[in-house]
């Protein structure tokens, strides 16, 4: 499957529309600084979720050790709280996964529509080279 190259279909197919204008229009509308801010917030939340998950895992491991060491009479009373702890951690991990997946899919969708910048950059490079060459050769022509 080939990714779209950004812009409307008619813009991409219209030879009169330069790759530079297509790329420029996309990135103007993309609002990179806003997206970076959103990614920063999401990254901080992901790091916080990872830290909380690690703490909860240690606590569950400790509670599980205590449960294994407990007498048969005490195990009955500890079982409900241990099971509840595992259920809460599964719920937290599910929320964490959903948040990470949504963050990825959000930026993926936006970047999927991005035009390939290579044709525009190549066009600029050729134009710059021609301009530079003309500037160098111009004194020789006069």
TrEMBL record:
PANTHER family this protein is in? Answer: CCAAT DISPLACEMENT PROTEIN-RELATED, HOMEOBOX PROTEIN CUT
Q: Which domain of life is it from?
A: Eukaryota
Q: Which stretches make up the Cux N-terminal domain?
A: 18-124
* Keywords noted in UniProt: Coiled coil
| Cross-referenced InterPro entries | Cux_N
Organism from which the protein derives:
Stylosanthes scabra
For the region Disordered, give the residue spans: 49-68
Name it. Cux N-terminal domain-containing protein
User: Where do Basic and acidic residues bias regions lie?
Assistant: 59-68
């Amino acid at each position: 499957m080939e990714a779209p190259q950004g812009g409307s279909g008619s813009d991409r197919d219209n030879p009169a529309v330069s790759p530079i204008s297509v790329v420029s229009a996309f990135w103007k509308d993309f609002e990179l600084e806003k997206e970076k801010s959103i990614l920063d917030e999401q990254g901080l939340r992901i790091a916080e979720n990872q830290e909380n998950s690690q703490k909860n895992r240690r606590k569950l491991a400790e509670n599980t050790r205590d449960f294994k060491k407990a007498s048969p009479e005490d195990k009955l009373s500890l079982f409900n709280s241990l099971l509840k702890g595992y259920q809460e951690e599964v719920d937290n991990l599910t929320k964490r996964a959903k948040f990470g997946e949504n963050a990825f899919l959000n930026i993926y969708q936006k970047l999927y529509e991005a035009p390939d910048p290579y044709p525009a950059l190549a066009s600029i490079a050729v134009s710059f080279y021609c301009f530079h060459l003309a500037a160098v050769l111009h004194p020789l022509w006069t």
